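For practice. Supply one:
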Amino acid sequence: MSKIIKLNPSQVKDFVSAATKCDFDVDISYNRFTVDAKSILGVFGLDFRQPLKVSYRGFNADFENYLDKHAAAC
């Protein structure tokens, strides 16, 4: 499953915290650059001017709600 979101640097800590609570792998990417969404340093390396694609295989209601709040209009 994947969703497109927009983040700014001040939201990274909350995003990583939400991803860390998931018991499945979560990746975040743009173009061909992909990092582990549970890595705060990796996420800070992304270009926040771009829409970011969050990819995961699993379900966590709190994480889904977080992603819905930050969904980017495509």
Notes: The mean pLDDT is 94. The longest helix spans residues 12-20.
